[in-house]
Amino acid sequence: MAGNNRDERTPLLDGDAPTAGRADSSESTGTRIKRFLQRNGVYLIIILLLLLVLIPLIIQSVRNSSEHHGSHDHNKKHHHDKEPSNPSTNNTELCTSAACVLASANILRSLAPSYEKLDPCDDFRTYVCAGFDASHEIREDQAGVGNLQIMNEDNQLILKHILESPAPKDTSLFWTAANPDQEIFTKLQDGYNACMNETLLSHIGSKPLLDLLWQLDEIYPEKSKSSKKDESLTKAVEYLMEIGVGGPVSVDVGADDKDPDVNIVSVGAPWSFGLPSKQYFERAEIVASYKDTIGTVLEALLKEAKSGVLSFMYEGDNESGILSKDLVDSLVAFEKSLANAAPDPEDAADVTKYYNPRTLKETEAYNSEISITHILDKFAHGYTPSKIIVGSPSYLKDLSKILKSSSRKTIKTYLVWKVVQSWAGAVEDPAVQPLLRFRNKLQGKAPDVRQERWRTCVSSVGNDLEWIMSRFFIERAFSKEAKDLGDQIILDIKDAFTIKLNESEWMTESVRQLAIEKVHLIRQKIGYPTRSPDITNAGELQQYYSNISVSATAYFENKLSVVRHDVRESWSRAGKPVDKDEWDMSAPTVNAYYNPPANEIVFPAGIMQAPVFYDPSIPRYLSYGAFGAVAGHELSHAFDSSGRNYDQNGNYTDWWDKPTIEAFKTKTDCFVEQYHNYTVPTKNGRLPINGKLTLGENIADAGGLTAAYQSWKRRDDEKADLMLPGLDHFTKEQIFFLAYGQTWCGKMREEQIVQRIYTDPHSPDMFRIKGTTANSREFREAFNCPVKAPTCELW
């Protein structure tokens, strides 16, 4: 899409992206196994104990194989004595490699201890994850814990070791000990060390933050300095944009949905208004705590600033040293008005609602208080767009009314608070600690808990210098074999989806053929970028980051340099061709996405990792059940409630005819109702899932799992997978679904679940298991469920 009204990526996960790793493909097999076991040392005891149990099982299995002349008992029953429907012939030959033993241990450890007594058809989430729940606790610094989060933390540990070690020597991939590798490594390490120097940061305190507020005060003083039309609010919004702070309006650059080869400007509502969503402004306890936080933080900064920049906030006309309570009340009321004027998240993400092309003159007419022309003059450097995408005309109109009816003091307090909210995390000062405590409260954490500093700093430098970090990560944690398997799985998923489309009788023939063409034209990006920038080319990375200043003693300034650079780079694209070689996620990211205007699916190396998710050395039903379902999920987004609006070339256009659209709506209404009927318990009663907000992701989950299963089955028919030791209780088909279910094992604090329900287009993880398997005919057949028909079915 164009700009920031909606994130054009359709990621697998929301929020921070998780990560992981495996050994260099150039190492010997023995070395790879050694590294593999070292990284999973927490499982060594489990593996050893498991082997004591498995050796007799293996011996018995061999005896049985001999007695039955290598045949498998096709009438083998699973736990509740129901016949498996069309089970594969489970090869009695076992995979006993270290990777297979570990994979088996992971599955057994995650299963419910009494899974034999449970019916997976009734509650597959408990069946597949109760063991995980029993063996994992949510740490004080976590809002939740799950397999993908664990993978992310494993990956963070790899990056920590890189950042805290000397520069690497020459390697067989692409690292060298000479410049420019040395220079970019130094820049990366300096950024990390600057973040880690808490003593220095505490000594500096809030000064860098106050410096930003001083600059804002110069731009937007308490009283207008001009008798002419006041442009200071526009200039203040521009200043916030320069330093990466979201203001009352979002102005951004991105691919034009109806001309995806060209970047265009978009204008709309921001994503955040101080609290996570508009529903929070209706919760009295949260609002009271929020107001108290604002008052405490601003009053502390008032005292540190001493005079000038924040003096307008004092109670009364003199500098009493007390923050005006009325001013805080008016600030929160202002934010609430903006939030209520903004479109709901499901509408903000709907291209049929946010794609409203207007001329610059028409756009200006919506809001007389903030000049879009002035913003373009400053950032676009002479580019005059023939059209602008207005995400929500009604929001711009309401914003104009809200600004006109608000006092200058209220607006200035709002601007100050936006800067504080955005940059408080980059300073170490007691003045901003109440904001950390409030954020912890919103996630259900203890008030003063903080994650380990190194994790904060790995994430920080990984976000700021993502492609240098990606170069190191690939060197340490990816291989050619992993990339090749990813390519194979995705090609198989494309084939499976093509077959599915051919079988979709609800689509008319003309639409079906265009849809098949769209599948064939989907671009796939695997592992890491080799263009824009090429992370295998140190000289290119050196040039890419040449305009970013990084010092080992200037953490705040480092981040400010990165933000200013990123803003300049983004605006330099206005009116220019879209660079379709760019990636929106760095290599260590444990996530994936579909980009509709580019018609591309992207899978960073971080999500293609052992042991939970992906490994070329283990039976394919595991990799297809976990990673394959993700690949299918992203490809399915091309035909979900949003992606279906884009044709084979990424153009937003009416390429579906009326009968197909009507049939699609009938089928997808089922998903909306199904998920809306799922609820989560909270202290205020049960909260339903937003079936409309989560529709696209729920469709993708269902389509992805089906495509992955059918892809694996065809591969298994060509060459049967080995069985995993200790899992002879299951068919391979059933283990495929165990692998899928365990991907989403996890638990979350109540407050975090509530926030996700209000803001996240993904269903909570428990329903990504429950809802998706309920919509899988293959799952019901694999476990011989009484009802084979899925609850809802699209593909």
Topology:
Blueprint: E1 10-11, H1 29-39, H2 44-67, H3 98-110, H4 124-135, E2 144-146, H5 147-163, H6 181-196, H7 198-204, H8 207-219, H9 232-242, E3 250-256, E4 259-268, H10 284-305, H11 325-341, H12 345-348, H13 351-354, E5 357-358, H14 360-366, H15 372-379, E6 388-390, H16 393-405, H17 408-423, H18 433-442, H19 453-464, H20 466-477, H21 480-502, H22 509-521, E7 523-527, H23 538-544, H24 555-571, E8 593-595, E9 600-604, H25 620-636, H26 658-676, E10 679-682, E11 685-688, H27 695-718, H28 732-743, E12 746-748, H29 750-759, H30 765-774, H31 777-782
Parallel strand pairs: 4-6, 7-9
Antiparallel strand pairs: 1-8, 2-12, 3-4, 5-6, 8-9, 10-11
Q: What would you note in describing this structure?
A:
This protein is of the alpha+beta class and 795 residues long. The chain has two domains: 1-142 and 475-527 and 598-795, Collagenase (Catalytic Domain) (3-Layer(aba) Sandwich), CATH 3.40.390.10; 206-298 and 324-425, Neutral endopeptidase, domain 2 (Orthogonal Bundle). The protein is built from 31 helices and twelve strands. The strands form four sheets. A four-stranded mixed sheet has the order 1-8-9-7, with helices on one face. A hairpin with a 4-residue loop joins strand 8 and strand 9 (600-604). The longest helix has 24 residues, at 44-67. The radius of gyration is 27 Å and the shape is globular. Residues 1-7, 15-53 and 55-89 have low confidence and may be disordered. Residues 120-529 form the Peptidase M13 N-terminal domain. It holds the Pfam family Peptidase_M13_N. One of its GO terms (biological process) is protein processing.
